[in-house]
Every structure is written in structure tokens, then in C-alpha cells.
Structure prediction request, 200 residues.
Amino acid sequence: MLSYKDASALLSGYDILMPKIYQKDPKFPVVLKVDSQEVIHKTELGLVVVGIQDQAQLEENIARMQKVLEKNKIKKYSLLVQEQVKGLELLMGMKKDPSFGQVILFGLGGIHVEIFNDVSMRIAPLKKKDCLEMINEIRSSRLFDGFRNSPKIDKAMLVSLLMKLSELSMKEKNLKEIDFNPVIVNEKKIYVADARIIYA
Prediction:
């Protein structure tokens, strides 16, 4: 599994945007998360905290996370302070199937993915037509049209990121799995807020 730094470098080569990581002087609110190849499900261990409002709250959460990591005997890790971006949370990913090859997934993201299982799938490489079908197929697609005062989403941004994911899946050798969750999209931009990239 790639580290956040390596995943960021890989994705930037495909012009895929990730939120800024602050080295110092963060602009609050921020997200604090652990980056470790020993941790696959960060949220379950409480190793992702969103909406941190000030330096005192940040330091408090850093201390708490370090105790959790110590308790779970995780020694190799980094703590990342990430720009917090607002928008609708989606999921995009790829799983390598022994029969079909690279299968691209799209759906509602964040914690909702396991509750609603609202996803669509296609075999890569994708065309724009495939991407639009995937977007319109999910039950939650009404959310993109500004459902109940939520921001209207430009589907061209979703298509563009799905096409880049497809290209990445086809070009990079020995890729086994890609998990972009959450992908955060608003009226202006689309970000991959967290990326799990696993090589065979």
C-alpha cells in the first residue's frame, strides 16, 4: 500500500487534485489523519478527525492518536494535517478482477458506502458515455442536481475524474486495488481526500 506522500505524487502525475497538507501554520478548520501502511481502516480506530477548529484542539487530538497508535503497536506512521474541503462525499475505485480485469466503481462515499451500497461498476478502459451512465445509474444521482438546496454538481467534473481513474488503472503496472474515499465534490472543484492504492 502506498504512503499518502507516494499516492499524492502518483495522482498529481494524472492531474488529480488532493487537499493541501499543512507543514506549519494550518488554516483552520483542518482534518487530522494518520498515514501508515500498518493501518487500513483509519476511521474505525478513530485515526481521522475532521472539523478541528484551533491549535489546542489539534494538539489534543494528536496526543490522543499517539496513545491509540501505541496501544495498537503501530510504530511507523505520520500525522497529517490536511486542508478541510466541503462538498458531497463520493467513492471511486478500482478492483482487479481475475476474469474481467480492471473494474471501476462509483458511488456515494464516506461512511454511507457501507450503509447504502449505492454503487455502479464498469470494466476499464472507460469512455465518457460509460462514466455518465455510471453517474446516472446510482440511486443517489438526484443529489447532483441540487436536491433540497444542496449545491448543484457539474457532472463533467465527475466524468473527468472517472476517466483519469480509468487511465491510471490501465497504465500503472501491477495495480491490485484503488480506493478514493472520500472524493469530495462541490460547485467549483473535485478532490480525492483520501487514497488507498495497493500493488500486487
Observations:
- The beta strands are 21-22, 30-35, 48-52, 78-83, 88-97, 101-108, 119-123, 175-185, 190-192, 195-199.
- The longest helix spans residues 55-71.
